[in-house]
Amino acid sequence: MRIEYDIKLGFKDVMFRPKRSTLKSRSQVDLDRTFKFMHTETLWTGVPIMAANMDTVGTFEMARALTERNLFTAVHKHYTPAEWTAFLKNAPEGIENHVAVSTGTGVEDFKKLIEIKDQNPQLKFICIDVANGYSEHFVSFLKRTREQFPDKVIMAGNVVTGEMVEELLLAGADLVKVGIGPGSVCTTRVKTGVGYPQLSAIIECADAAHGLGGQIISDGGCAIPGDVAKAFGAGADFVMLGGMLAGHDESGGEVVEQDGEKFKQFYGMSSSTAMDKHAGGVANYRASEGKTVQVPYRGDVESTLNDILGGLRSTCTYVGASTLKELTKRTTFIRVAEQENRVYTK
């Protein structure tokens, strides 16, 4: 047993230090980024905010809405090959540049991934998603996927340490998903005692990835637009959102009414709700590691996107970054004990 005494930070532990800026307006900030990926010749340009591959967030409907704003969606893994084919026939032109096909690491998962790709060769992105990216099985599956799809962009995770980011990149990943336990409906830290504060995870993993020419996706922990900005400031290339995009028309699930208020169900993909729905229940060798909550119904996702993107542009103006790419270079974080005056907060 050993203890690391270095302080590890989450989003609530810091704020941006403002800096002199030449920008006159938030409208001058360019949020688009262009990436070339480590293992392919693919170029991607867009706003690097991504809907999480949860079935109450990463839906086809969400993908249509986010594509219209030049954002990205990691579509959840429970759509069939036939549903993918039908979706792409009726989707906006170029949507294949803004969606990833998600997969687990089982034998049937791999067969399904091949079938989806065979039927829809225009799809460019694959998201290999497991809760624990530290297993040898996961790395082997990643290597096999890279061999099967040498020209596709592969996202893989989740991990939170630099050495594992390097291993996944060298095994075939182009982008590594970073985050264990920070999600709003994740209970991994409670059930297992395992985790890593998200801001420090981003800083350390981004350093490791960028040294090899790879990228990272910050996955989890963002509750407000300021957190999204902090993730980018810490070095994240993409920021993946779950709870912030839940509860909308595009989020999937039915609207329910309780005591005159409308809600939508939102749950973690390791929750008993998700496993009852997709895996026949929670296996007797494991525990549920996710919550199920009722999120207030928020209507169309457009207003939420405006709030997130507007906040991010405002951050850039406060530190003098004219482009999103510049933000991390202009970032100085200060340690704080409080974030806001909560006297009028319920």
SSE class? alpha/beta
Summarize model confidence as the mean pLDDT: 93
Main β-sheet description: 8 strands, parallel, barrel
Tell me the β content: 15-25%
Fraction of residues in helices? 25-40%
How many helical elements? 11
What overall geometry do the principal axes of the alpha carbons give? globular
Task: State the total count of DSSP E strands.
Answer: 15
N-to-C SSE series? EEEEHEHEHEHEHEHHEHEEEHEHHE
Characterise the protein shown here.
The structure is a single chain. Helix 2 (81-89) runs parallel beside helix 3. It is built from 11 helices and 15 strands. An 8-stranded parallel barrel has the order 4-5-6-7-8-9-10-11, surrounded by 6 helices. A 3-stranded antiparallel beta sheet has the order 12-13-14. By secondary structure, it is α/β, with parallel strands linked by helices. Strand 12 and strand 13 form a beta hairpin. The termini are far apart. Helix content is 32%, strand content 19%.
Structural key phrases:
alpha/beta; three-stranded antiparallel β-sheet; 32% helix; single chain; 19% strand
Topology (elements, then pairings):
Blueprint (H helix, E strand, L loop, with lengths): L13 E3 L16 E4 L6 E4 L2 E3 L8 H9 L3 E4 L5 H9 L9 E5 L3 H13 L5 E5 L6 H13 L4 E7 L2 H10 L3 E4 L9 H5 L5 H15 L2 E5 L5 H9 L4 E4 L13 E4 L2 E7 L4 H7 L13 E5 L5 H18 L4 H4 L5 E3 L11
Helix pairs in contact: 2-3, 5-7, 8-10
